[in-house]
User: Fold this.
Amino acid sequence: MALTRKSRTAMDVLKSNIEYISTYSKKIDDMLNGGIRIGVITELCGNPGSGKSNLCTQLCISVQMKYGITSNETGTVIYIDTEGSFVPIRLQNMAMAAENHYKNENKNSINTNSIEQLLKNVTYFRCINVAELIACLIQLKQIMTPERNVKLIILDSLAHPIRSIIDGDHLTRHKYIVRIVTMLQKLASENNCAVVIVNHMIAKVESQKNEAYCAPALGDAFGHMSQLRLQLSWKMNKREARVLKSPHIAELSTFFQITDDGIRDIDETESMDDSDYNSASQENIHAISNM
Amino acid sequence: MSFISFTSPYFTSLNLIDNHLLERFERAGIKNLIDLSAYTSLELSFKFRLSIFNAEEILEKLFSILSIQSKNVYDMLIETSSLYIPTTLPTLNHYLNGGLRRGLLIELCGSWGSGKTQFCLHLTAQCCLMGLRSIYIDTEHTFSSDRLLNMISDFNSKQEHLLELVRTETIFDSDSLMNILTQIENELEDEFKNNAIDQCPILLIIDSIAAPLRMSTIGYNRDNTLLLFTDCAKRLATRYNLLVLVTNQVTTKRRSNVLTEKSDEHLSLTTNKNIGNDFYMSVALGKAWSYSVNIRLAISYQGDTRRQLIVGKSIESPGYTIPFRILTNGLEEIEENRNINTEKKPLKKNLIPQLIQADEMHLIGKQLRP
Assistant:
């Protein structure tokens, strides 16, 4: 079996179309130069309840929408859940909101996906420990046929099964992490799909100053493995998305909100009372980013 | 499945690969699938002198026993849409899309006397009224059949026989907790096999999880036990479609600006005076536990019989705070009089959701009058 490799010049790489998946928040998409990149691993970290699973569910919808992905065709999703935090009704709500939006914007709706089809295109796997996770990834190699056209793989989360390993030291955990991430990297580049890995945050203490701070879990080694590291948190009573690491974009941060319909931008032009910042009324839904 | 030893009779009877090879694995320290997960096919081929192709084949065959049935979300929605337990608080039901859903691990925290046990009893009562079984594991010796009976029976009819649907267990330490959970898991497995799905319980309450863990003296043991417990609880929730409700206690935490990620402009960073003795009450059991639960509810005290139910973490609902009362016949939501401000656009409900950090919730406990 001969392995042929074509070398490419930097011009080839520049000209090749880089595809993105929108997060449905224009500010976050602008910050990321388009959204979640296809073909590479993106890491999503944050404190509990910061919106990671919500963002993942939102991406499941946007990858299937014509204007949610800069590509010729929309794709399907594989959602690997290790924590049990995926709720089908939430996906349904987001799907209905996205459908409604496009019906309003385009009178001649090109998008003929019904809600049912949107839900059917998301394949769900539930893995409880590392062994099941690896078995699942091995299974994926056979599942990802060209007809299926998987454009997004979500692993929510990697931190939970790794941190649940009781009789293992750092070295063993590192081996598991490397194994899993390598398999995902192969899947991402060979099948040209985006991979999103969700991570936890841990509290670390710096011994000299005795100060505690929050850092992403899974160690420094894992920090090198993703192409983009995105942190979700709260700042001044608003939700914030911050780029921690990226070779292409600056380390910016921006605000967003989570409504009943999914991830959206915060409208700056509304009246700036403090009470309004807390409200999630229907009026806060804004134009989904047009791509 | 992933923990079954390679050399056990069950595994060898599956006849997946050569038994001699399984013995070599065992001698090299790879005892089960979890250990095997750390090895790539290249490493296996070096270690055991196999060809890479062979090694890949072996990995695929062994892991095929764990292969999971995938579902698409539409089918999942159809399956799970009607499987929830409605509470007696209509707003909570509305925002959680019907009630507390089965298959999730839900945590309820609150200070002493805030009403956690009452909430558990009311949920058990709801379950009884639906005619379904439930299991109540009591670790603080606070279970009361009288209260449960009050919550079940209306003023008209007495329904004592419904109490037989509740199975109670009283335990005191973490070992017996894990024992009883293993026992329950085995029984559920049998019931499932015998297709007696109607007889299966739908609700498992553990009141509380913090009490047996606080008995453990060493902190490291506590983390391990919590991990084992979380594993078991989630397995029970997903495989047997149980609603697992766990109550937690509170602990005092020191206010630290760095950990809470909130930048307070009034607090200057140079003076340590304000930071020093700033204590507040928050959820016990640590940060890692906060990730494990699917929904976090908290009860804050508001005076007399009035309480606030706070939705701290939930994928479906923003951080609503629902006021309610604890009465003789259960929990009742407080309908507040709404002042409609004609200048602002009216909100959908008079409740305003807030951004709540799930692992740094500030709770109010019962204050004793001087």
